[in-house]
Design goal:
mainly alpha; elongated
Length: about 160
């Protein structure tokens, strides 16, 4: 009788035990260290953190440019400049995705490695962009509020590095 009860309990709890388990694929610890998936998921986590920082810093920069005033104390927002900053950031994000997809594809690697190389490229380019945005912001913050509207464009030049070589 005990064997039958144990067998019934075993058969009843197998689906419950199996049902409670979910396949682990979405976290780095689910994959062997050094594998493309492990590396890619770690990089994706890093990229998400950089994306949040970059969005915050970009917003700060746009607000700083939007709040420029002249020596008469009046607020003079250059709408064209603000729109251009926003459009350029959006275009840069598209550029980064396409550039890094090409970089990943050019590796000739198999499996998920091209995606891993692409996300590594995105992390690198995002870190560079974040440094440029922060540098532009710091440069503008050093300019007195009265002169900012006239001098801030020099600080913003670093956001277009290819043109300024």
């Amino acid at each position: 009788m005990r064997k039958i009860t144990f067998a019934i309990l075993f058969l009843v709890f197998i689906p419950v035990i199996s049902f409670g388990e979910t396949e682990c694929t979405d976290r780095p610890e689910c994959w062997p260290e050094g594998s493309a998936m492990h590396t890619g998921l770690l990089l994706a986590k890093k990229q998400n953190a950089i994306e949040k920082l970059m969005a915050s810093e970009q917003e700060k920069l746009v607000k700083l440019v939007s709040d420029a005033s002249s020596s008469d104390g009046e607020l003079h927002t250059d709408g064209r400049l603000v729109r251009a900053l926003k459009a350029q950031q959006s275009a840069w994000i598209t550029y980064r995705a396409n550039e890094c997809e090409l970089i990943g594809s050019l590796t000739g690697a198999g499996g998920t490695w091209p995606s891993t190389y692409a996300i590594r490229c995105e992390v690198n380019l995002s870190q560079q962009r974040l440094r440029r945005i922060r540098s532009a912001t710091q440069c503008i913050e050093k300019i007195s509020i009265e002169k900012r509207i006239f001098e801030q464009n020099t600080c913003l030049q670093q956001l277009a590095p290819l043109v300024n070589k």
